[in-house]
Amino acid sequence: MKQIMALIHDGVPCREFRTKRLSKSGQLIDISLSASRYADHRGEPAGMLVILRDISKRVRAEQEALKVRKLESVGVLAGGHCS
């Protein structure tokens, strides 16, 4: 909310803010939110452009890669050596 308020009042863009939202089907998905304010012909704030991206697959891949690294670390510790 702090970032959105900074956008509304000061025009500070919000880039790739990660959060979760419900999809139309009711599924909770990971999203990346980017937003910026645009001005009219006089330079006065006229509206906002908000882009939501479904990043669920990317988040799952990052979580899986983290699990693999943790398992590799445990294997190195258990084996007592590095390859």
Note the main attributes of this structure.
83 residues; Beta-Lactamase; three-stranded antiparallel β-sheet; 40% helix
By DSSP (H or I, 4+ residues per run), the number of helices equals: 2
Mean pLDDT figure:
89
CATH superfamily: PAS domain
Major sheet: size, sense and barrel closure? 3 strands, antiparallel
* CATH class call: Alpha Beta
Instruction: Give Rg in angstroms.
Output: 20 Å
Instruction: Provide the spatial order of strands within the biggest beta sheet.
Output: 1-2-3
The termini sit apart by: 47 Å
Q: What is the CATH architecture assignment? A: 2-Layer Sandwich
Order of helices and strands: HEEEH
What is the strand content? 35-45%
* Shape category: elongated
- The total beta strand count reads 3
- Structural class of the helix and strand makeup? alpha+beta
In total, the number of domains comes to: 1
Helix percentage range = 25-40%
Question: Which fold name corresponds to the CATH topology?
Answer: Beta-Lactamase
Give a nutshell description of this structure:
The chain is an alpha+beta fold and 83 residues long. It is 40% helix and 37% strand.
Verbal overview:
The protein is of the alpha+beta class and 83 residues long. The chain is 40% helix and 37% strand. The protein has a 3-stranded antiparallel sheet, with helices on both faces. Strand 1 and strand 2 (28-39) form a beta hairpin. The protein is elongated, with a radius of gyration of 20 Å.
